[in-house]
Write a structure and sequence with these properties.
This is Serine aminopeptidase S33 family. Keywords: Aminopeptidase, Hydrolase, Membrane, Protease, Transmembrane, Transmembrane helix. Pfam families: Hydrolase_4 (PF12146). InterPro entries: AB_hydrolase_fold, Hydrolase_4. GO terms for molecular function: aminopeptidase activity. The structure is a single chain. This protein is an alpha/beta fold and about 500 residues long. It folds into 3 domains: about 1-25 and about 255-265; about 25-255, Rossmann fold (3-Layer(aba) Sandwich); about 280-499, no CATH class. The chain is built from 15 helices and 9 strands. It has a 9-stranded mixed beta sheet with strand order 1-2-4-3-5-6-7-9-8, sandwiched between helices. Helix 2 links the parallel strand 3 (about 50-55) and strand 4. The longest helix is centred in the C-terminal third of the chain and has 26 residues, at about 445-470. The chain is globular. The N and C termini lie far apart (about 60 Å).
């Protein structure tokens, strides 16, 4: 059975990569030099003529890879496409800065960066002088505002938009796209449309794109804030809107990558099972059984006490938004849980010599193999040198936390209610922390889906390792390093003193 699963996983991985790489066929994808050093990529269809430039901007905690469906689709349609990493994001070594609460602070700096990318792309020989801005989430407000300034845009595609800068006639040729399952932003899309025509409905086009007065709102069915980036409806709408704005007639398929990416990720995770089965089997430690009451205390006491203990303090050490707090939350949470488990005799036989190389194997698979897949097809996962200190700092909290989680859940051997309780209690603890200090910690809400996905993917793999080797702490050790890495490359770097 392990060999069959390994073979099927490798076949699905190979097929998925073949399909995903096929979206790049016929395109030239190269770096483009931008003033200030912003990492940017230029996408050109081989043999195409002069065309408008499309500058693509990602959302908060995103990167260029996340916007590939639009970049590849529009490049295939013949447009000159430039996609980039905002400061503080992805491969960009320059941290975000300025006041995030004012238009003249961080927003202005990100607008200036977007303009620099636009000027670099407009200088390409294939650019015909016309310009489009396309942005998602946080970037939607950036591109709407930048479209009104030099270099001005001839069309704008705002995805999951919220912007107070939209008026009845500005920006020119505005297409707003939202997912059906992001209800507030879908309403915002309709509001922007009805500034021009109060009777308009989703899907209606008002004004004349050929004259620069067009406006449309599209609601992509059955997708949410990230899924909208992979929606065929959204991709077709963006391409068709630009064709209408510039009198072009593009054809061909759009880059429908979501299903293949999901298949690739699931197959890569599935490959971990036969690899785990190849590890030396072990019976593992047999600590004294924990009563249900003690399990409840170990799961719930840190969840309640840690946010209460940290609430009075303002913590600023790492140059990353809320990472300082998260290190302490994870570390204190883990140490408190470990202390309770040690007091109840749960450390018995947990740390034999082989735990270190098993833990290293878990970390290597999570970071190099699964992380490599994520970096190529989903979002930036390979850090620049400036993020290594951040990853090391996060490991000081993540490793104790996941060591405690591994021992408490017995490396996947514990009953399901015990595993679910441990993970839900931690998520609730982060929620309580945000509630106690919303203004300072609301960015933690951004990572909650990352934590849930982490538990689903990496927690499953850790369980396979724990059940095979009998070493609950090994999975915790390896996963602690993976979690530190994942958070360290996801959080935007921020330097408030640089503005």
């Amino acid at each position: 059975m392990p060999r069959l699963i390994a073979l099927l996983s490798l076949l699905i991985i190979g097929l998925s990569i073949w399909q995903l790489e096929g979206d790049r066929a016929g395109l030239t994808i190269t770096p483009v030099t931008v003033e200030g050093g912003t990492p940017a990529t230029l996408y050109l269809r081989n043999g195409a003529g002069a065309a408008p430039v499309v500058v693509i901007a990602h959302g908060f905690a995103g990167s260029r890879q996340l916007m590939d469906p639009f970049a590849l689709t529009l490049a295939e349609a013949g447009y000159v496409v430039a996609s980039f990493d905002f400061e503080g994001h992805g491969r960009n070594p320059r941290p975000m800065s300025g006041d995030v609460t004012t238009i003249d602070g961080t927003t202005r700096l990100l607008m200036d960066e977007t303009a620099r990318v636009a000027r670099a792309a407009l200088a390409h020989p294939r650019a015909d002088g016309r310009l489009v801005y396309l942005g998602h989430s946080m970037a939607s407000d950036i591109i709407v505002r930048q479209a009104l300034e030099a270099p001005r845009a001839d069309a704008v595609v705002a995805i999951s938009m919220f912007s107070e800068a939209v008026t009845a006639d500005a920006p020119r040729n505005l297409l707003v796209i939202a997912g059906e399952w992001e209800a507030m932003l879908a309403e915002e899309a309709l509001r922007a449309l009805r500034l021009t025509d109060p009777q308009a409905r989703a899907g209606d086009s008002v004004g004349d794109p050929a004259q620069g007065t067009g406006r449309r709102a599209v609601i992509a069915p059955k997708v949410e804030h990230v899924g909208v980036l992979y929606s065929a409806t959204a991709l077709h709408a963006a391409r068709d809107w630009l064709d209408a704005s510039f009198g072009r007639d593009s054809s061909g398929p759009v880059a429908q990558r979501g299903g293949w990416i999901a298949a690739l990720l699931l197959a890569t995770v599935a490959l971990a099972w036969p690899l785990a089965r190849a590890l030396p089997a072990g019976a593992g430690p047999v600590p004294p059984p924990l009563s249900a009451k003690r399990v409840l205390v170990a799961a719930l006491a840190p969840a309640l006490l840690v946010p209460l203990a940290l609430a009075p303090f303002e913590i600023r050490v790492l140059p990353v938004l809320v990472a300082d707090y998260l290190v302490l939350h994870l570390g204190l949470y883990g140490l408190m849980t470990l202390a309770l488990l040690w007091h109840w005799g749960q450390f018995q036989g947990q740390f034999p010599a082989r735990i270190w190389w098993v833990g290293a194997a878990v970390a290597l698979f999570g970071i190099a193999v699964l992380g490599g897949v994520i970096d190529r097809y989903v979002a930036s996962f390979l850090p620049h040198s400036g993020r290594m200190v951040i990853i090391a700092g996060l490991a000081l909290g993540a490793v104790p936390f996941l060591l405690a989680d591994g021992i408490l859940t017995q490396g996947g051997k514990a009953r399901l209610w015990r595993v679910v309780l441990a993970r839900v209690a931690f998520l609730a603890s982060l929620g309580l922390a945000v509630a106690l200090n919303f203004e300072a910690l609301f960015f933690l809400l951004i990572i909650l889906p990352v934590i849930v996905l982490f538990f689903l993917l990496f927690g499953t793999m850790s369980g396979w390792v724990g059940r095979r080797t009998g070493l609950p702490a090994a999975g915790g050790l390896g996963l602690g390093l993976v979690l530190a890495w994942a958070l360290g490359v996801t959080f935007p770097m921020f330097d408030a003193g640089a503005f």
